[in-house]
Each structure stands twice: as structure tokens, then as C-alpha cells.
Amino acid sequence: MGSRTGNWATGAVLVLIHLGALAAFWPGFFSWSALVVLAVLMYVTGGVGIALGFHRTLTHRSLKLWKPLEYAVTVCGCLALQGSPIDWVATHRAHHAHSDTEADPHDANAGFNWSHFLWMVMPNPNVIFGEERRRYAPDLVDDPFYAFLDRRHVLLTVALAALLYAGGGWSWVVWGIFVRLALVYQFTWLVNSAAHTIGYRSFRTTDRSTNCWWVALLGWGEGWHNNHHAFPFSVRHGLRWYELDVTWLMVKTLAALRLATELKLPTAQMMRRLRIEPAKRRTA
After folding, report:
1. What is the DSSP string of 225-244?
2. Domain ranges (residues) in the chain
3. Cα separation, 41 vs 173, whole angstroms
4. N or C: which end of the chain has fewer CB within 10 A?
5. Alpha carbon 113 to chain centroid, angstroms
6. What would the pLDDT profile of 209-221 be if each residue is shown by its tens digit?
7. Using an 8 Å Cβ cutoff, are 168 and 177 in contact?
């Protein structure tokens, strides 16, 4: 996460991770098994951990997972190395409270690069940290499990790197840690940047959120962002038949297995009230 005076340590780590990902172009680090590790871990950490866990379950409480599963999914999210659950949730709730205003931690009006990644490393007066996090995420701050992860979440990635090295050597580490982190970062960041800039709007909101189909495909359904900002409580983001939402499909599977309950969805009346006429939608 960023800081109000700039977080150069975070910037240095992000640069090192992306430089490490370039090692994938060295033939000696390539293996088909490493590609399988990449694909599996991208989905487990990005799709399950961030989209389902950090975002829809913890931030918006759009559904209720069986508690041991909620904790397991959160651990998967920690392996995406995007900060602790408390930091991530507090920041995202602040984003929704002040979306695309000067109080938004990653205000899209400040430019694409700012909302994509600069907000984390440059001086940012709206970063949520310290005791201020309790204001936005009291439910997590008061939970001993999340308080523990707040202090130890980075160690999970260190442990994963050690396991990957033991299982497949540096090839698995390069693809399973560096390439995977770099890609999941970019896919997640695009929701803040591209999905506040490019696409169409189905519903009236007070921000710049858009439905961006290619961000939705890359980001496990998170790119249907105008839908999400219109109905932040909704566990389903792709609200039309052609808006593929992989995370929603996962939620329906978990619900069928009785591992997910209390699924929240907008009513037809809610959607009619905010719907924008097709001729008035912004497209790109």
C-alpha cells in the first residue's frame, strides 16, 4: 500500500517483481509444468483469493462463506501480495465511499497511470493506514485471524516460494511467483484504471465506472465495474446474459454445495430505476 508521503519501498518491490518476471524469457527457466503452476496459481490467488475473497466476500459482504472456507480463501488472497486483508478492504471501501472524487485513494480523474498504480507509490493524502483502517474495516480489525494475517501475510508468499523451489526449482519460482504476481497485479489494477475509463455504462452512478469486457475476461468478472458500482452489494457483477462473470459461476457452485449462503442480488426494480437507455451509453 502507499503512504501519504510516498512509499518507495512498495515501488521498489513492484519493480523487482516485474523485473523478475522478465526472467521467464530466458529459455532455461521454461517448462510446461511451470506454465501449469502459473495457470493454477493465477486462478487460486487472483480469481479465488482477490475477486471472491478480498472483494466480494470481505469488502462487500455480498455472500457468506462457511467460515473455514472464508479463511482459506483469504489466505489465497494474501498470496497475491496486494497487502493484508485489512489494508485491501479498508482501501476499497474508502474507494466506494468517495469514488472518483478528490478523497478517493485512486481517483480516476487524476489520470490512468495514477489510478492504475501510481497512487500506491507516490505521495497520496487519501491512503488509509494505521488506526484509520478501523473506520472502514472494523469487522476485520476485531477478528483475531485477520489481525494475525495483517502482521504475517508476506510470510505466506515466502513459504509458497520455498515450496515451489522444492517442487520444481527456479523454473517454478519464476513462473509461479514473479510472472504470476506481475500478471495478477496488472489484471487487478486494470479494474481501477481501464474500468473507470474505457467501456460502456448500463446504470447511472456518480463516478466514472464502466463495463469493460476485456477487463472482465482478464479479471474473473471484475471488469463489469459499472454494474458493480451501481450495486456494490451484489455478488453477481455480470448482470446480462453476455456479461461473463467467472466468479459468479464459482459462487453458484459453492451455493449448490451449501458452502455459500446469503447471496445478495439487485432486484429487477432496482435495475430499472438506474438503467441508462442504450442510446445514451458511452462506448469505446
Report:
1. HHHHHHSTT-S----STTS-
2. 8-280
3. 12
4. C
5. 17
6. 999 999 999 999 9
7. no
In terms of Cβ atoms closer than 10 Å to its own Cβ (0-12, 13-18, 19+), residue 155 is exposed
CB 27 within 8 A of CB 200: no
Residues 112 and 197 sit within 8 Å (Cβ to Cβ) = yes
For residues 7 and 121, is the Cβ–Cβ distance under 8 A? yes
> In this structure, what are the phi and psi dihedrals at residue 49, rounded to the nearest 5 degrees?
-70, -50
Chain position carrying cell 505521495: 123
Amino acid letter, residue 185: Y
Q: How far is CA 109 from the centre of its chain?
A: 20
Task: List CB contacts of 127: < 8 A, sequence separation 6 or more.
Answer: 1, 2, 3, 4, 91, 105, 119
Cα angle: 219, vertex 60, 225; to 5 degrees: 40
* Residue whose cell numbers read 474495516: 137
What is the rounded distance in angstroms from the CA atom of residue 253 to the CA atom of residue 241? Answer: 18
Closest of 8, 46, 47 to residue 184, by C-alpha = 46
In this predicted structure, the answer to whether residue 284 has a pLDDT above a threshold of 50 is no
Q: How many residues does the chain have?
A: 284
- Residue 60 DSSP class: T
